[in-house]
Amino acid sequence: MAEKKATKAVAATKSAAAANKATKAPAKKAVAKKAVVALNAENAGFKAGDVYQALATAGKALSVAEIAKAAKISEEETLLGMGWLFKEGKIKDEAAKVALA
Predict the structure, then answer these.
(1) Buried b / exposed e across 52-64, counting CB within 10 Å, b at 16+?
(2) Helix (H) or strand (E) holding 49
(3) Which of 6, 45, 61, 70 has the fewest C-beta atoms under 10 angstroms from its C-beta?
(4) Residue 62 dihedral angles phi and psi, to the nearest 5°
C-alpha cells in the first residue's frame, strides 16, 4: 500500500506543476546585487590602473560607461580610479569624455 500512496503523491505533484505551467505565472525577477566597492588606497590604485590601461588601449577619449566596459569593472569603480588619476594629473576632461593627459 505504501507504493500506491507514493505514486498518488507524485501524480499530485506532477498535476500541480502542469497546472502552474498552464497558467503561465510570470517568472520572478532576480534582484541584482549591487557591487560593494572597497574604499581603500590599494583598491583605488588598482582601479586607477584599470582605467588608465583602458584609456591607453583605446587611444581616444571615452565616457565613464565605455571605460567601465573596456576595463570590465563597475561604473563606481571606474569613478574611483578616475578620481585617483585626476588628482595625479594623468587624465583630462574632453567634451564630457575622459582622455589621457
Answers:
(1) bebbeeeeebbeb
(2) helix 41-58
(3) 6
(4) -130, 155
